[in-house]
Design a protein that fits this description.
- It is a single chain.
- This protein is mainly α.
- The protein is 24% helix and 5% strand.
- It contains six helices and four strands; from the N terminus they run αααβββαααβ.
- It has a two-stranded antiparallel sheet with strand order 1-2. Strands 3-4 form a two-stranded antiparallel sheet.
- The radius of gyration is 24 Å and the shape is flat.
């Protein structure tokens, strides 16, 4: 005969008891007076900080870089032609590898003292390019959004690894014990498939039976 579980039972049993550890910390009204060490307490930075706060928004699904701030003149030349064979066959949820190349429909012009090229999509942003920082060295090992998103934020195409927010919290701590140090709103779909490295493909196929093909590298 089973008895009803209380909420305390769930906290003790679930997740190897980590829930009860968190509860004990929250319910301790004199934690600061007992000499408890908070591993996430604010830590002084290595260098004096000029910025008081930073808001980081990684907006997956935003307009393509080739349509906004990173023109690709070669796309004008090869518009409508198939991808050169030297790139291999790139397969994703949007193409079977036979989709022709497409040039950007937007026109680019140089703006500001820096001479940064901006497309006609952003006429107002183009007026303040000298105040912006453009990073054009990113590349990923996947043509699928979700694995590429994981790699940009964690360095790996698989989920479950610490992101930039984790490392910043580890290095600098958090000013609040009542709020999370950072928040991630994950993308529920996008299981990595064809773009896994060859060594990972076999183990991934054995574990979840997902068809895989040759990996591809795409530079942005």
């Amino acid at each position: 005969m089973y008895r009803n579980l209380t909420r305390r039972d769930v906290l003790v049993r679930a997740a190897n008891g980590f829930g009860s550890i968190a509860l004990a910390s929250l319910l301790d009204p004199i934690a600061s007076a007992t000499g408890r060490v908070n591993p996430l307490a604010p830590k002084p930075p290595q260098l004096p900080a000029k910025a008081k706060s930073v808001i980081f928004l990684f907006m997956v699904g935003a307009p393509s870089q080739v349509d906004t701030f990173d023109p690709k003149p070669a796309l004008e030349k090869y518009d409508g032609q198939p991808l050169p064979a030297s790139y291999g066959t790139i397969i994703s949820q949007f193409t079977k590898g036979d989709t022709p190349l497409l040039k950007s429909p937007w026109k680019f012009k140089k703006y500001g003292q820096c001479g940064r090229e901006v497309s006609s999509l952003f006429p107002h942003i183009a007026e303040c390019v000298d105040d912006l920082c453009f990073v054009r060295s990113f590349y990923t090992d996947s043509t699928v959004h979700a694995p590429a998103m994981y790699q940009v934020n964690t360095g790996r195409i698989l989920m479950g690894y610490p992101s930039m927010g984790s490392w910043i919290t580890y290095g600098l701590g958090s000013e609040s014990e009542n709020l999370p140090a950072y928040v991630v709103m994950p993308q529920p779909e996008g299981t990595p498939r064809a773009e896994l490295p060859a060594g990972v493909q076999a183990s991934y196929r054995r574990s979840i039976r997902v068809p895989c093909s040759a990996p591809a590298r795409v530079r942005s």
